[in-house]
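Just scan this pair:

***
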Amino acid sequence: MSANSTDRSRLSDVQAAIVTGSSSGIGRAIALQFAEEGVKLVVCADLQACPKKADTAIWETHPEEQSLATHELIISRYGAERATFIRCDVSVERASLAAGEKDRRDYDPPEDTQILGMAEVVEETMRLTGRLDVIVNNAGIGILDVPLHEMDYGTWNKSFSVNGTGPFLGSKHAVAQFLRQEPDTYGFRGTIINISSIGGQVGLMRCSAYCASKASIIGLSREVAIEYGRNGIRCNVICPGYIDTPMLQPWVAASPEFAAYLDAGIALGHLGNPADVAGAAAWLASGRESGYVTGAVIPVDGGFTAR
């Protein structure tokens, strides 16, 4: 699809959209879908720019793209003005507040790399475009196969710091900006799309921290929808099921029993693709197509939670 054709798409009125966790998997698919649908600037926000090597969906099906970061791929397709990358830690509000807290974050950033907090990601987006229309709080971690009685507090807190605090901070600072700007063509000041999980809707064996933190996203999103609906702000949740991403791939490969469990539980009989979630996100981002949708919790799970 050419750059000219995307200008006529359903998201061509979106000036800027932030997508956290954009380097791989679902986040990468959403960022690419947004660019294809016409978003003027896709702000790719993550700890690292390039896709994870475990992302076989990219490595096996698109080997020519394996060395390209998400924003670089968008730029190569649509032009230099269509994407940028911001290195960020979604679990902190501002980089200055994270000083001295590296012990609770599982990385040591290069000395020449600045990692921003979510408040600064929104501020930098505004500096670049002057408007923020959509934020997708997608970044998350999966702490799996740990029974509750064996889980330490640090493991529990780590899950909530990314899966719970990340969407809170992203939503908080996006809402603050939305309230400062005028409504768009469809009467909306902004849209929040929070990525939860089927684990936020139903219990999954030995996944207490993951399920609890993902469930918190649903509660937060419903509250935002009610609290700010009359300000022209929409907030919805997507709950992906078992999607072929770097988080899931090692589990399927290592356990025939788990693969059999998925086969029996998914009504459509196969894993989902990140593009399935991206399509739902693009629909929710469109004020024209989903303008009367807020506070919704939408499973994209092949029928897993229908049983």
